[in-house]
Write a structure and sequence with these properties.
- The complex is a heterodimer of chains A (about 210) and B (about 140).
- Chain A has about 210 residues and is mostly helical.
- Chain A has one domain: Arp2/3 complex 21 kDa subunit ARPC3 (Orthogonal Bundle), CATH 1.10.1760.20.
- The mean pLDDT of chain A is about 90.
- Chain B is rod-shaped and about 120 Å long.
- Chain B is of the alpha+beta class and about 140 residues long.
- Chain B has two helices and seven strands; from the N terminus they run H-E-E-E-E-E-E-E-H.
- The chains are: A mainly alpha (about 210), B alpha+beta (about 140).
- The interface between A and B is large, with 46 and 39 residues.
Chain lengths: ~210, ~140
């Protein structure tokens, strides 16, 4: 789900950087208070898990491939702010070490997956009357994948309208929303389902050890 | 009458001659091409996807089209060595890469560059855990 470099126009990624900088500043506030000796090792392991999940490509129907995110697990265990920061770290590392994703695309990827994904997960878990139930976990994890996928598809889909050469050729991602939306969102329904199962398994493990608030 | 016939004949000859201007000339030859093969990280060919190939410093593509069923871009680079390849798929995969190619050379690109070598994967995990280790020290120090 990472947008690579060269896919989005500066008219999009520059404002996204401004927005993301504000969001990172918000997330960093009070982080020291939330990080204790018990939380840090868990956060380290789950962040490493998200990092590995993002690099293991799974074949999808139609010849494409995709990967799990791990954002739902991060958000479930550590809340929106820490999940957003940890996922930004994952994206940054993947971009710098492997060119998976990219530096120009970092704010869009971080905002869509890290912030919106985490918010959707926490909102589903805490917002529903069935708090911390398997149904809430599964729904939250599924939406934490599919809603960011929808956002990324929209961001990519508007690129041909934003930046064109003089002869009308798209300068960045060339497909419009009518093509990008189904092509990106439909495979992520499947990925969302697998992510929901993974999150449910981690939830059972975390509940047994009293990690959940 | 004869004069009229001559004029008509002359006109027909002129028209017939101009018809050859719409003829398509084909020349089949043998040349040495470079082959760029694009694939998904799991090895599936990046097949039938649009691409653009830019010569060094050029803003308009030298060649554009679709990758073939094997995910290949085949072209004749000539004397130019630096090329920029942009290829996209509908689902948001693709690449925007600078390549240095000589005539007849080949390049294999795994799209998204995400065919992760295992040592690098471990290195990344190591970097992450080391960072959190330092954070742990910092948190302990803050409490003391």
């Amino acid at each position: 789900m990472h947008i690579p470099d060269g896919f989005i126009a500066p008219q999009v990624y520059l404002p996204a950087y401004v927005l993301a900088t504000g969001a990172w500043a918000w997330a960093v506030r009070g982080v020291r208070r939330r990080l204790d000796e018990e939380t840090i090792p868990r956060l380290a392991v789950v962040t490493a898990m998200a990092y590995v999940l993002g690099l293991v490509m799974l074949p999808l129907p139609g010849g494409s491939s995709g990967h799990l995110l791990g954002i739902a697990v991060l958000a479930m265990l550590f809340g929106i702010r820490l999940a957003f920061l940890a996922y930004t770290l994952v994206l940054l590392l993947q971009a710098l070490m492997f060119g998976a994703g990219g530096i120009t695309a970092l704010p869009v990827n971080a905002l869509a997956v890290g912030l919106v994904g985490a918010t959707v997960m926490v909102g589903s878990v805490h917002g529903l009357p069935t708090r911390y139930t398997p149904a809430a976990i599964v729904l939250g994890a599924f939406l934490a994948v599919t809603i960011p996928a929808l956002m990324i598809a929209l961001v990519l889909g508007i690129q041909p309208m934003i930046a064109q050469s003089e002869d009308g050729m798209p300068l960045f991602f060339p497909f419009g929303p009518e093509i990008a939306l189904p092509a990106i969102v439909l495979p992520h329904l499947l990925i969302g389902g697998v992510e929901a199962l993974l999150t449910l398994a981690v939830w059972r493990y975390a509940r047994q050890r009293g990690w959940l608030g | 009458m004869y004069a009229m016939a001559r004029v008509i004949l002359l006109l027909m000859l002129i028209v017939t001659a101009s018809l050859s201007a719409h003829e398509m000339r084909l020349e089949v030859g043998v040349d040495t091409a470079s082959v760029i093969t694009l694939s998904y990280p799991d090895g599936e060919p990046f097949a039938d996807k649009p691409y653009q190939l830019f010569a060094e410093g050029s803003e308009s593509p030298q060649q554009s089209g679709q990758t073939d069923t094997q995910g290949r871009v085949i072209f004749v680079p000539g004397r130019l060595r630096q090329w920029r390849l942009r290829a996209f798929s509908e689902e948001g995969h693709g690449t925007d890469t600078l390549l240095e190619l000589e005539t007849g050379s080949t390049a294999n690109l795994s799209q998204d560059k995400a065919a992760v070598p295992f040592p690098y994967l471990i290195l990344g995990v190591g970097v992450l855990l080391s960072g959190f280790g330092l954070l742990m020290l910092y948190a302990r120090r803050g409490k003391q």
